[in-house]
């Protein structure tokens, strides 16, 4: 049986406050955030819940507010407001096991999802 080492990537979603805002909103409970796992020697991060924006068309997703320096990831926009998270390179889980950062959805008009 082949066993993979995994490490976690903690992501906090940026969400809207209870106010009028016409930009995109991340479809997530802000208290729980996202949780991601990536297998050794792979770059695709399995994120739960899925990264998804609602409320307005999305131009791109951005990594913002890196809590502890570099976040070697990119968020790739997919169809229907969904996105996937990928490591820019194969990660060394023995050197660093966790990453924490926020993400934002950016609307076609440049408005970012809010906290």
Question: Can you offer a commentary on this structure?
Answer:
The protein is mainly beta. The chain has one domain. Helices cover 0% and strands 44% of the residues. The protein has no helices and nine strands. Strands 1, 2, 3, 4, 5, 6, 7, 8 and 9 form a nine-stranded mixed sheet that branches. The radius of gyration is 14 Å and the shape is elongated. The N terminus is likely disordered.
Short description:
Keywords: Signal. The protein has 115 residues and is an all-beta fold.
Q: Can you summarize the main beta sheet? A: 9 strands, mixed
- Decide which structural class fits the backbone: mainly beta
Low-confidence stretches: 1-18
Q: Helix count, per DSSP?
A: 0
Helix content: under 10%
Mean pLDDT: 81
Proportion in β-strands = 35-45%
Shape, principal axes of CA atoms: elongated
Write down the Rg. 14 Å
How many domain modules? 1
Count the E strands. Answer: 9
Strand and helix order: EEEEEEEEE
Distance between the termini: 43 Å
Keywords: Signal
Signal peptide: 1-17
